[in-house]
From TrEMBL:
Pfam families: Virul_fac_BrkB. It comes from Kumtagia ephedrae. It is found in: Cell membrane. The chain crosses the membrane at residues 34-58, 92-111, 132-158, 178-199, 211-231, 243-263. PANTHER family: INNER MEMBRANE PROTEIN YHJD, UPF0761 MEMBRANE PROTEIN YIHY. The keyword Cytoplasm does not apply. The keyword Translocase does not apply. This is Ribonuclease BN.
């Protein structure tokens, strides 16, 4: 009975603070900012990858970003993203590419603001520190994508070497698409951990962040599945928005994802508040 009461209090606190602190508006802000940051990030990352010799980066980046999206949402825009990324651009350090990196960092700043509100903390770090940290996040993500791109290019060679040493893995070597999903999912998990650890103000133990991260992952899986099923059976987006249907579907999907992400932070904060309250009254 006590556990049921605890769960009810934590959930009530989580949902109440989400609603009272403009969580719905923050989810909308985060969704639009993420969409606006996505293309500049991919353009910057592709330009840097080309400079480093990773010519196959565009296809890899699209798979890493969109493989975890429902096909009904990703398919209409993935091909257009590839078209944008394969346009030849000037040198690496052009103003446009640097500007793309700056706009991409705005997405990181939106994540920071959302988590600060969810964790109920006040930001005390300077603007310069925050912006530099956001750009570093963009650079790390870019380098990570480039490394994965290079590894996937050499995947056939790695597979032949592995088969020569361990023939028992041969039945599993045809599941390249599965490995893409595994890699994309791993990137998401590591990214979630990174943003919860370093973006919000203050310090938290890793164990205190696990519930919100798990909630976010499960929520994204359930939310994307339900939304994809809705698009398959009941959607009238094409009739309503005509040529804008694909972008509107992406915005709504990102809004759902953003709300779940913020609720993950709210859950961590609510659990911490409940445990602190119990400690003050002696358990």
């Amino acid at each position: 009975m006590r556990k049921i009461v605890a769960v009810r209090r934590v959930l009530a606190d989580m949902l109440g603070h989400f609603n009272d602190d403009d969580g719905w508006s923050m989810a909308s802000h985060l969704a639009i900012t993420a969409l606006m940051a996505l293309f500049p990030f991919l353009i910057f990352a592709t330009t840097l990858a080309s400079f480093l010799g990773a010519q196959a980066f565009a296809e890899t980046a699209v798979h890493l970003v969109f493989d975890t999206w429902p096909e009904q949402i990703a398919a209409p825009i993935a091909s257009e993203v590839v078209n944008v990324l394969t346009i030849r651009r000037g040198g690496l350090l052009t103003f446009g590419v640097l500007l793309a990196a700056f706009f991409a960092s705005n997405g990181v700043e939106a994540l920071r603001t959302s988590l600060n509100r969810a964790y109920r903390v006040t930001e005390t770090r300077s603007f310069v520190f925050r912006r530099v940290q956001s750009i570093v996040f963009v650079l790390i993500a870019t380098i990570g994508f480039v490394i994965i791109s290079v590894l996937l290019v050499f995947a056939p060679l790695i597979a032949r070497i592995a088969l020569a040493r361990a023939e028992w893995i041969e039945p599993y070597m045809g599941t390249f698409t599965l490995w893409r999903y595994v890699i994309a999912s791993t990137v998401i998990v590591l990214g979630l951990i990174a943003v919860h650890v370093w973006l919000p103000a203050g310090k938290r133990r890793f164990v205190d962040m696990v519930p919100g991260i798990l909630f976010t992952l499960i929520g994204w899986l359930v939310g994307s599945t339900v939304f994809a099923a809705y698009l398959d059976r009941f959607s009238s987006y094409v009739n309503t928005y005509a040529g804008l249907a694909s972008i509107m579907v992406a915005v709504v999907f990102l809004y759902i994802v953003s709300a779940i992400f913020i609720l993950g932070g709210e859950l961590n904060a609510s659990i911490r508040r409940y445990l602190d309250a119990r400690a003050r009254v002696g358990g």
